[in-house]
Amino acid sequence: MAKKVSAASRINLSRAVENYQREGISQIELDQIVVMPGHNPRGYATGDNAFSGPGFDALVASIQSFGDVFQPILLRPKASSNLYELVAGERRWRAAKAAGLTHISALVRELDDDQIVRIARQENELREAVSQIDLLFASLDQLARRLNVPLRQLRTVLIRARDGGEAFPENSPEAQVRDLIAVLGLPSLATLVRSSRLLNLTADERQAMREGLSQQAALALLDLGEDPLRPQLLVQALREGWSAAQLRREIQQLRENQSPTIKQVAQRVKNGLGERRLAQLPEVKRKKVEQLLLKLDELLAQDSHSP
């Protein structure tokens, strides 16, 4: 276990300390700092694994040598306590702990929830180690939290907001979407609608996107639904470096070679009857689906009452 060392005892740079103080930079105890769950886009889906590897080890070594971080972290006071919430700089904070420091240079600011989301996103967008898929998932998760809707229902809300947000009550999630997107500095509503399908990716597919699988290719995989060959196609696409167009061709060929069983057809229909999928259909098509469902229900009811 690393020996605890105060940054103040390691640094002998009085002028630098004076400059820090003039800028409002303080030495804060590491144990007084708490991480807000789901706040940092870095490693959104990988957790602690995002804060490891050669780059992180080099940062730890640098902090051990210097006795502090080169760039102060950003904190805000935690209400009714002597603690601080970490707004920006989680990687530096973790590295400082791993380096054995007891204190870290930090800017402490009074910030509201909207401001801290924007700051975290903007900081991480400037850092190449943050994958776009993690930034996307973090954006969707933050939006769902602020709208107070389950993440699994967010796509439906986004579609409704896109297609007729003005028709919803002022305090409804659909009516608040556009304003929140602007306040939080998120991608456009159209982009979020398109990208929100990626919430249905498997863990392996999300990891593949971190390693270079394009969003278009990932969306093509989603078109396969629960097809048992979907994992196999993912492996092939990564191994052979398929483009999204190549993957779509392979999927099309796969479908042409398959003769679906009644069970597979039933499963495919079931997959298409989810609330989110139905919400995407044009009104005319949705009504036709509803009519067919009523007829199917009638036929099944007749069969269940036959002698």
UniProtKB/TrEMBL annotation:
<dbReference type="InterPro" id="IPR003115">
    <property type="entry name" value="ParB_N"/>
</dbReference>
<comment type="similarity">
    <text>Belongs to the ParB family.</text>
</comment>
<feature type="domain" description="ParB-like N-terminal">
    <location>
        <begin position="26"/>
        <end position="125"/>
    </location>
</feature>
<dbReference type="GO" id="GO:0003677">
    <property type="term" value="F:DNA binding"/>
</dbReference>
<dbReference type="InterPro" id="IPR036086">
    <property type="entry name" value="ParB/Sulfiredoxin_sf"/>
</dbReference>
<dbReference type="InterPro" id="IPR050336">
    <property type="entry name" value="Chromosome_partition/occlusion"/>
</dbReference>
<protein>
    <submittedName>
        <fullName>ParB/RepB/Spo0J family partition protein</fullName>
    </submittedName>
</protein>
<dbReference type="GO" id="GO:0005694">
    <property type="term" value="C:chromosome"/>
</dbReference>
<dbReference type="InterPro" id="IPR004437">
    <property type="entry name" value="ParB/RepB/Spo0J"/>
</dbReference>
<dbReference type="GO" id="GO:0007059">
    <property type="term" value="P:chromosome segregation"/>
</dbReference>
<dbReference type="Pfam" id="PF02195">
    <property type="entry name" value="ParB_N"/>
</dbReference>
